[in-house]
Amino acid sequence: MPLLRQTAYWIRFLQFHFSHYTSEFTRYANRPVAQAKMLWVKAKQTYHFYDLFLALKTGKKHDLVHRLGLFLDEHDIIRCAHCLQNSALRLQEKFPILLQRAKSSHFTKLVIRHFHALVYPQGTAYTLAAVRKEYWILAGHAAISSVVTACRKCKWFTMRPFHQPDDSQLPSFQLDTTASPFQNVGMDTCGLLTVNNTKTWVLIIVDLICRAVDLEFLSDMTTEELHSAFCRVSARRRMPTFIISDNAEQFKLLNVIITASINVDFFWKFIPCFFQWQGGVYERQIGMVKQSLFRTFHGTALTPTAVRTALAEIAAMLNERPLTYVSEDGEDRPLTPKRLPANSPYAPG
Ligand SMILES: [Zn+2]
């Protein structure tokens, strides 16, 4: 224990500098750590069991003396004498040192932690057996159990997995089967792409029902550029009536522009700040777009034309991705955003 090593160091210091200082534990003179341990035990027993100490010295009656068979050894340390006196055990095991319960003594907690570490942090029973080879702690099982329960290493290895919250209900805008393609969409941007030594971005629009994707090239992140890209997608697909996105300032301004310029019902839902997982429905598609872009163009000098072409091809590829299980025999064709039933109201064109 660090406590004992520190104490041993200071005992040696005092012995070296003050020649008149003599230890009462001469038998431990060559074992400074054992000497320090005895000093601490005696100090703690005097503090916690002073009445017991007086009872043992004067021969008065005391409950604990009778119950635990207590006696004072030659160094005035209170020890227990239980029914194993005639065994071949070591003296420390036959006559363990009495210690106060852990909730009243920090020294007892340190002792328990020391022995808990010695048994390669095993549980309460192992630690109790190890402690009893040298000490008898009042209410020992409860004391050791409380220390082992608070042990960080044991907690780390025995903790149960985090309880997953129950599945929440899907929002209505993801379940509107009467909606046409790209009527309810999620919108976000991703970047950065370096084109002609200029930073550029990609606008991603995801259908919230069939997960079809459309991509547009953004030469910068101004609202004007974003509005133009949005108009191109709306002209190709249709004007959305519901949009969900994060709280980017450009999206907020675009919302104001669109709301002021159209006469149809239109609602833009902004997810709460710092709640990125609420946009998971489109963030997942962004991951796929980024993966395709960066794996294809990593380290390549790009031109706007090449990026626009690549974005169109990536969107076509993503709209052909399987949404259902792909069987090994190939008999069942997987459902893709593009191959939804032709009469489906949300089969994208
Ligand atoms: Zn432990």
What are its keywords?
single chain, 349 residues, alpha/beta, Nucleotidyltransferase, domain 5, 5-stranded mixed β-sheet, 13 helices, binds zinc ion
Question: Which strands sit side by side, in order, in the main sheet?
Answer: 7-6-5-8-9
Shape verdict: elongated
Distance between the termini: 74 Å
Helix-strand category: alpha/beta
Number of strands: 9
**Count of DSSP helices?**
13
Offer a concise description of the structure.
The chain has 349 residues and is α/β, with parallel strands linked by helices.
Structure, described:
It contains 13 helices and nine strands. The protein is α/β, with parallel strands linked by helices. The protein has two domains: 2-158, no CATH class; 179-318, Nucleotidyltransferase, domain 5 (2-Layer Sandwich). A hairpin with a 2-residue loop joins strand 5 (184-195) and strand 6 (198-207). Helix 7 (124-131) packs across helix 8. The longest helix has 18 residues, at 280-297. The chain is elongated, with a radius of gyration of 38 Å. The structure holds zinc ion. Residues 116, 121, 148, 151, 153-154 line the site of zinc ion.
